[in-house]
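Comment thread on ticket #2218

A.B. wrote:
> Attaching the input chain for the structure job we discussed in standup.
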Amino acid sequence: MVERIRTRLLVVGSGVAGLHTAWRAAQDGPVILLTKRSLFDSATAYAQGGIAAALGAGDSPELHRRDTLAAGGALCDAAAVQVLVDEGPTRVKELHTAGVAFDLEPSGRFKLGREAAHSRNRIVHAHGDQTGAEVARTLISRVLNSDAVEVVEKARVLDLIVDGERCCGARVSVAGRAVEFIADATVLATGGCGQVYRYTTNPQVATGDGFAIAHRAQVKLTDMEFVQFHPTALDTPENPLALISEAVRGEGAVLLNARGERFMPSRHRLAELAPRDVVAREIFRERRGGERVYLDARQLGEQFVVRFPGVTALCRARGIDPVTEPIPVTPAAHYMMGGIVTDLVGRSSLARLYVCGEVANTGVHGANRLASNSLLEGLVFAERVARDLAETPVLTSLPSPGNWRVPVLEDRGAAQVAADTIRELMWEHAGIARTAHGLRTGLAALREIQTRLPEGATEELNLVQTAQLIAEAALLRKESRGGHFRSDFPNARRKWKGRHIEW
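C.D. wrote:
> Ran it. Output below, let me know if you need it in another format.
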């Protein structure tokens, strides 16, 4: 028997976008917040770099806008970028008022750092390199203290409920029970898809669920070829890999190859502070043949421990002392620039379905996200979603109850093998450097894997379908731009400027 639960608003995901949406929307009616594991399982809690906003003297939304557009490879939506930079400072100040303990100067002003491709110091941090965890802590507290928000953990969304031309909620496995959540409006804030790659900084829940779920419901997606690879993850045999914040390079750390030589000054005028895609490719090049690359921050001395307590703890827990020795690093899948297409208030192409956070494509990132714009985007557009949700009319007619069950995964071993194979294929054929031959090889293998998935492998199905969206788009875009690099088409091409690949 399928259980049915009625609510005003349904929010799926517990990262910054989902939490902020639920908190703010609860002022206008009851909200149910679903999360696949626990409230603390999200990429937000892993975020070290901070939040970018024009808050300092000598900075302005206009300068932030220019930097964002320059990073985006001529694919940003200018209106969305304007919204981001104009509303960003207010959202950061609101978070501070809500309880986020941002790092401050003795004067009480925000302590601002700089990261790659920013023309000003505009990155706010909390506890040095624990910004995401502090933001998550604060928003989780707000959500749990709201009488209007009901949190349901261990809830895996299987598919959207579509009735005619509208979304009416979602079919969900709640600890194995089949539950239909019927809502006047549904918000997907399911995060990214880093787990489709062998090396990633994303948590294990980041299996591309939102992209695949939306695609099956024929919701419009775009720009799935634009995956951002963070240049410096800690090079250890783990999943996910620990992130070494870009702010470490912002403080003066340099990259060394296996021979102890600094290589970035000869590759880009900004050296270690070049755009992420450039740095990631150059590290990838140096690592070919099994060589290692190191991030050397020894010149910071004991100040490293003060500035980066989280990174210090991560390294020392793995037998590496960043104060006295270089840190081994590798590029890793970090962020999806593409996703479900939205307007400026988070509406998707399917009526009553809103999207925000990494799973959305608002247009602010274009082909290459500017560092520390991700948490900012989640905050700014979640606020806009919450405000627009207040205007959503009540469903006057409800869809008929479904006749379905949660499929039981009986062959976990086969599902795990499939997932591991997907990650290897994507890293090899649709990763940092791509070719037509490699992408076709990878796509053929991915399609074969999908046909052999055991019943009940719902998460693996999302993984393989999202992987195919990335590889198909990468094959179609015959140029290099931003986070998408084709070694058989190594340059940007004029005819692809401003063009998007859509589903």
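A.B. wrote:
> Thanks. Noting for the ticket: The radius of gyration is 22 Å.
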